[in-house]
Design goal:
Layout lengths: L3 E6 L6 H14 L6 E6 L5 H8 L5 E4 L16 H7 L3 E4 L2 H7 L3 H13 L3 E6 L3 H5 L3 H12 L5 H4 L3 E4 L13 H19 L1 H6 L1 E4 L8 H5 L6 E4 L9 H4 L7
Parallel strand pairs: 1-2, 1-8, 2-3, 3-4, 4-5, 5-6, 6-7
Amino acid sequence: MRKKIIAGNWKMNANPTEATALAKRLIEAGVESDYADVVFCVPAIDIPAVVGAVKGTGVAVGGQNVHFKPSGAYTGEISADMLTDAGARYVIIGHSERRQYFGETDETVNLRLAAALAGGLIPIVCVGESLGQRERGVTIELVRSQVKTAFGGVSAEDAAKTIIAYEPIWAIGTGRVATAEQAQDVCAAIRTVIGELYGSGVADSVRVQYGGSVARDNAAELFGQPDIDGGLVGGASLKEDFVNITNYKARKG
């Protein structure tokens, strides 16, 4: 059985002082889960502070981006070594906001994925379609292409370490959410293409998340689908109610 993984993407929110306080509040509220790995993916400047705040717990910390070179004249970027040295274990790659605002492409996702794996990070690779693409009926075709390009040149051993997050762009931060059936269909397609690339053993071990307006009221249904292994959660991860998502089988209230 694949263990669920629920990661909070804090996006560009909270300075180090605020991040420390938030992490501590979430820990005190019971964000740790018996049946899911829990990760806080925080702004790079917050990583050391949040690592300190979660020390001694089962919560891990991740970054939100990684450059594809280990060092060099890349002003404003951050390398895998910098992330790991700061205490990060995970990193988000190819989030739709990176694609929309900062020119991320499937090809640069592939480069960043290789760098993250070489640097010892666990990558969370994001794929997903826009509303227009869904309405044109190209969702599965598009997502398959994104996965194939992202994993180009990646070994089976490394692929098995990777997490893939299906994030329909039209559901991120909008309050709209894919139905459990829609999300399951795409996550199953992702697992199928991994199987085509690497075989059933890797496909069965790779964890596939759903992201896009995950909330306390839909988490259990989404995470109960056979090919959905948890979630990449945005705004809801900044609130104590995140506890009801990480503990979706016994949510409070």
